[in-house]
Write a structure and sequence with these properties.
This protein is an all-alpha fold and 145 residues long. It has helices spanning 3-10, 14-23, 42-55, 60-70, 76-111, 122-127, 134-144, and strands spanning 30-31, 37-38. The protein has 2 domains: 1-71, Orthogonal Bundle (Multidrug-efflux Transporter Regulator, Chain: A, Domain 2), CATH 1.10.1660.10; 93-145, no CATH class. It is elongated, with a radius of gyration of 24 Å.
């Protein structure tokens, strides 16, 4: 299978396929006499795995670990579950952080009348550490965490 056919079948771009090869996520393919890469059909499934793992937020290094674990018939599933649990914990932490930022930004927006002099704008003052409004200071502190 050529790289173009592989890209179409897997939904992954040609440049990404070459990048994954350089990163060691894909084995180097055989070359045809013409010099073109010749991929085995199983590469389509591996690329889909990589694409789906990326969509779940796994880094390329983590994806490499998952691929390695997928070949471990004794402890692979346990390791994969642990990696997925770690990824979920990181996502939940990020979500909590984003919720604090959202709440802080809402507080700043609510404190701003939307008119007047810029030097009296609670959003600008809070961002510039010139704020005496307790709610806005709390909001900015939440955003900075």
């Amino acid at each position: 299978m050529t790289i173009g056919a592989l890209a179409r079948a897997s939904g992954v771009g040609i440049d990404a396929i070459r990048f994954y090869e350089r990163q060691g996520l894909l084995p180097k393919p055989a070359r045809r006499a013409s010099g073109y890469r010749d991929y085995p059909p199983a590469t389509v499934q591996r690329l889909r795995f990589i694409r789906h793992a990326k969509a779940l937020g796994f880094s390329l290094a983590e994806i490499g670990d998952l691929l390695t674990l997928s070949a471990d018939h004794e402890r692979g599933v346990e390791g994969i579950r642990r990696r997925a649990e770690d990824r979920l914990a990181a996502l939940e932490q990020r979500i909590a952080e984003l919720e604090r930022v959202r709440d802080g930004l809402k507080t700043l927006i609510d404190a701003c009348p939307g008119h007047g002099e810029p030097d009296r704008c609670p959003i600008l003052r809070a961002l510039g550490d010139e704020c005496d409004d307790a709610a806005a200071v709390t909001a900015v502190a939440a955003v900075r965490r």
